[in-house]
Amino acid sequence: MAASFFLSLVVPLVLLLLPLSRSASVVTHLPGFHGRLPFHLETGYVNVDEETGTELFYYFVESERSPDTDPVVLWLTGGPGCSSLIFYEVGPMKFVLVPYNGSLPEMAYNPYSWSKMASIILLDSPVGTGFSYARDLEGYRDVGDFSFSMHVVTFLNKWFINHPHYQSNPFFVGGSSYAGMMTPIIAQHISQEIEHGKQPRINLKGYLVGNPFTGSDYDRNFRAQYAHGVGIISDQLYEAAVGNCKGNYIRPQNKLCDMALNTIEDLISEIDEGYIVGVKCVWDLLRHRFMLEENAQLSKLSPEQPTINCFAYRYYLSNIWANENSTRDALGVKHGTIGEFKRCRKSMPYSFDVSSSIEYHFNLTSRGYRALVFSGDHDLVMPFLGTHAWIRSFNLSIVDDWRAWHLGGQAGGFTITYANHLTFATLKGGGHSAIEYRPRESLDMAQRWLDNKPL
Asked: What's the whole-number mean pLDDT along residues 54-66?
């Protein structure tokens, strides 16, 4: 797997001739979008490891509301190894979803971009993701949870030094899916640097995560309960699992439990786990790294082109768009630094060296940092039941009990607030990467929370 990744990079000797640093570029036009961009976009690289020449590529979208005072949000996307680009989740662009005809995919402005109320930094991390690269191939070998986190912290320190205008703005770390595991780790490192008086002083106020992976048993142990609750498995099968598995639905201790869990997984395989009411597409399943680890055979079944009714069709378009020379030139991508662009590099060598991120959540909230944890309630990849369970394990007192939160007179989801400024919320009808399924509701939820208002 590692060998195939290095071959796919196709890194030529020209890397040795590239300048060590590059100033940021302001991007005013992008291929596939008609006219001038209706927002301020800056792209660039930040060197996070001098020895290997590791440079992380970023997109900075300035707030369209009040950039001098609005929050700055770092947003990381899934993976590990999935590019943030500017089309996914919180970004200001989206693809026009029409059948591909061989021409450059067209784009449109995303009216629900989080840049409506915050400045956002979208980062291709870890190295090897998107347009981020290393001069020395050794930079790709030692990649994992800890190095990922520390590279992001280094990136932020250098980015704020180069952008002193934003140092006083409230800052939040955010991420979804697997990036939700990295988010509290990154935030804790920043908080420790603040306590030690390190400069620049980043004005960290908290963090927010969507459908977050934690690495703990909570992530997978509630699949049976959720599947039963939404009618995927029968009462009889669920009762058999409860009676024989004794609360452990991950590592069966007897044959009857094992049989029940295998049957449950067979039934779950009939649907799109990321969005239980959606169309099941193999392309969509491959979005989830930890699912791929358990179902490696899916990679052999992935079609070259998903059908337009697949949720991942937009990812297919992004691969086409990002591999155009005109696109790379417009974004300021250094020539010769990467080969083929892939939205998610599933073959990337990676060490899963953090067993659980839950202690980081607890540490941060105990130290007074604000936290928003949200889940799409139609996600079986990371069921909201498991996410809420680890939050409840903190035994925090309830400040605002379970209730609906509303948008336009309708319930946008449900929420509960605990002591230590910890809020949990669901997005009604949202799947995995809930923001992409419910962009309007996600923007409203995030804006209220970032503005320190109740949901």
From this structure: 97
Pairing of strands 72-76, 370-376: unpaired
378: nearest Cα among 418, 438, 291, 323: 438
Sorted by sequence, the CB contacts under 8 Å of residue 362 that are 6+ apart come out as 394
CA distance 373 to 423: 6
Confirm whether 136 is a catalytic residue.
no
Verify whether residue 149 is a known catalytic residue.
no
As a whole number of angstroms, the distance between CA 76 and CA 210 comes to: 11
So where are the chain's domains? 2-216+312-450, 218-301
- The single residue of 84, 432, 442, 444 carrying the catalytic annotation is 432
List 25's β-bridge partners, or say none. Answer: 43
- Cβ-based burial of 19 (10 A; exposed 0-12, middle 13-18, buried ≥19): exposed
- What does the alpha-carbon distance between residue 120 and residue 174 come to, in Å, rounded to a whole number? 10
- The alpha-helical segments, DSSP class H, found in 196-234 are 223-229
> 56 and 123 in contact (C-beta within 8 Å)?
yes
Average pLDDT, the chain: 90
Catalytic residue among 115, 125, 132, 177: 177
Q: Does the annotation count 168 as an active-site position? A: no
CATH of domain 2-216+312-450: 3.40.50.1820
Q: How far apart are CA 225 and CA 232, in angstroms?
A: 10
Helices (H), 221-338: 223-229, 235-245, 255-268, 282-285, 289-294, 298-301, 313-322, 325-331
**Torsion from C-alpha of 183, 186, 191, 194, nearest 10 degrees:** -140
Specify the 3-state DSSP secondary structure of 448.
helix
Helix (H) or strand (E) holding 150: helix 145-162
97 phi and psi angles, rounded to 5 deg = -90, 90
Based on its alpha-carbon atoms, the radius of gyration of the chain, rounded to whole angstroms, reads 21
**Which of 379, 388, 421, 444 is flagged as catalytic?**
379
pLDDT tens track for 200-250: 999 999 999 999 999 999 999 999 999 999 999 999 999 999 999 999 999
